[in-house]
Amino acid sequence: MIYRRQIQTLFQLSKTSPQTLRLLHCFLIKTSLDHHEYFFSQLMLSATTASLRHARRLFDTSPIAPPPLFAWNTLIRAYSNSSAPIESIKLFAELLSGELKPDNFTYPFVIKACGRGLMLGVGGSVHSMALKVGFGSELHVRNTVLTMYGGCGVVEFSRKVFDEMSERNVVSWSSMIGAYVNCNLDIEALRVFKDMTIENEKPNLVTFVSLLSACTNLLNIRLGRSIHSYIIINGVELQVSLGTALLNMYAKSGHLDEAFHIFNSIREKNLLSWTVMISCLANQGYGDEAFSLFTKMEEVGLRPDSVSFSAILSACSHGGLLDKGEELFKKMVNIYKIVPTMEHYGCLVDLFGRAGKIKEAYQIIMSMPMEPNSVVLRSYLSACKHHDSACYLDERLTQLLIELEPDIGSNYVLAAGISSSIEYWNGMKMKGLRKVPGYSWLQAHDLG
Description:
The chain is mainly alpha-helical. The chain has helices at 4-14, 18-30, 37-50, 52-60, 69-80, 86-96, 106-116, 120-132, 139-151, 155-163, 170-182, 186-198, 205-218, 221-233, 240-252, 256-265, 271-283, 287-299, 306-319, 322-334, 342-354, 358-367, 374-386, 395-404, 409-418, 423-431. Helix 11 runs parallel beside helix 13. The chain is globular.
């Protein structure tokens, strides 16, 4: 006879082993334990961890009618964390049409799904429902509502919920800070953090990640270093999300040595960690090093995504690695089956343009499945000018650049510099435009 404790052990194992999950399911069917609410609910919990598709099949063929509320909540929560959060909403609507009623666990999962799916209208309606049934004042529900509004870009709603809270915890403060950062109001995020410290609320990992994002956006390396020091002094574990946030801050500020130190300190790096480091090397002009790191990333078993390829193609472009860049583009399309975006094509055009392969760059533009944007056009036209290749100058591309950005003076200067026509100078004068001097966002090192 198998006791409950032994079955519980099998439930834990089945979360990471689909084969164990199937065997356990068969056993529960044979013993009719799948008709027991507790065992069916635990089976659903394991299934959502192992395979969401399998969990949905279990739910739809449940021997208990209707399935227990715990099973509904488990599946709704799983969908809210998946790439298809709208399925949470559909399941919630199905739940409302039956005899069971949502509880204080259901609403936060559904509200979270609304935030992840940017479904502001639905999220507002679910918030109203939670208030009507008496769950709206619960701290967990309010924290989720706050995050949902911030995710949907209406931070003023988040602030209203935050200000009306009679009690707050670290999640409340972190959610408010995160909402401001999400809406690009980084100064406001730092002000909330200041209030948080006045209230003697100790920050957690999520707080630090949001604060470091704010520092990165503001290029406030001094404050970022202070936060880093706090993390070290207080022995905060450098988990991958926190490590990547620190890495990104140092990388965007141009501090390559510190970025590499953080990168090497992250024990279990994820794809984002590798991509940020590759991008950092690319921006600093270390194309060969970036290529080597990209190769190492593949060797450890990580599958590069669209963003990873944008970073490495940019590195090849800045480093003049024509053959490697062309090879990577083909690998992206043929091996990894990634559909090239405008950014990928832009990197390729820039790569050939810098190498003086103007004809090839032009052919890429002509083969693109979308109309080139201003970045691609400027890159190509600048290459034509730099390499004195007016023979490949297409007046339609020059005109398209002006049409896309008619109020940018440097576009007229570029167009006039490679065209025999004086109409661009005249157009610039008629609009009263002038070329704006270039500048850099890299923060200078403190002197003295």
